[in-house]
Amino acid sequence: MAFPISDEVLGTFVPIAVYWIYSGICMALGSFENYRLHTKTDEEEKNLVTKQTVINNVLLLQTLQATVAIFLLKVTGNDAGASSKSQSSTSLVVSAGQFVMAMLVLDTWHYFMHRYFHRNKFLYRYIHSQHHRLVVPYAFGAFYNHPLEAFVLDIMGSGLSYLLSGMSPRTSIFFFCFTTIKSVDDHCGLWLPAGNLFHIFFSNNSAYHDVHHHFHGGKYNFSQPFFSLWDRIMGTYLPYTIEERAQGGFQVRPAYKLKEHTGINDELVN
Question: What SS3 class is residue 160?
Fold first, then answer.
């Protein structure tokens, strides 16, 4: 006798599987220098943490996230069978609207929390700096974070986007898989001139996030994982160009020269 797996359980574990599958694809593409935003030498010399440490950390965080999700399902009683909410028919138009709402909620939460983790010296030094040990990000390092940051940004942000959008558990499976793939792609360190739909439909992409990891101590391009809206509104957007490297591959450069000042903000000058 087959026992159905609830949409809530699928929504917990399918994105984890998608994370490692898509990371593997990106790592395979990273073996080709012509697609990379940084050379393999940069990756080996600049990163302050080993690949194995990153993998161990991500597996730990995913275990914690799944444990929290299962606990909440037990408490709310939504872990056995497919809930009536997930079984109700939802039109594609409604689901699309919920997707957009969830994306906006998640982006808003991530922008302001992410920026605060940078602006607060204590939080950056002891919490968020762990993520920036990956100067040249690995695809599978997208979720490489301190556990406290993972809880605040990922678990709380995901919960808010799910609740405020009103999506069903079934719709959430697709949304969180999509979010996972997008986050991995932003950290993959690859630039595919053609064929990557994320680079076509989103200005917030691997090159956009590369600016955040490399220029002026992470003072720009905090937005993630979808839009660049809040960076543009809040004045933290740094334009950039993508140039071909002589040795092959690409590199990201600011579109303007940056003039450092003693104040909090940098000045963009022509």
Answer: helix
Give residue-wise pLDDT tens across range 231-255.
999 999 999 999 998 888 899 988 8
Query: CA-CA distance, 206 to 192, in Å (whole number)?
Result: 10
Is the backbone of residue 129 left (phi > 0), alpha (psi -120 to 50) or beta? Answer: alpha
Confidence of residue 126 (pLDDT cuts 50, 70, 90): very high
Which amino acid does the sequence have at 124?
Answer: Y
Q: What is the mean pLDDT of residues 85-90?
A: 51
Q: What pTM was computed for the model?
A: 0.85
Q: DSSP label at 31?
A: T
Which residues are within 8 A (CB) of 210 and not within 5 positions of it... i.e. 6 or more apart?
Answer: 37, 137, 189, 252
- For the chain, give the number of residues: 270
- β-partners of residue 48 are none
CB 36 within 8 A of CB 198: no
Bond preceding residue 137 cis, omega within 30 of 0: no
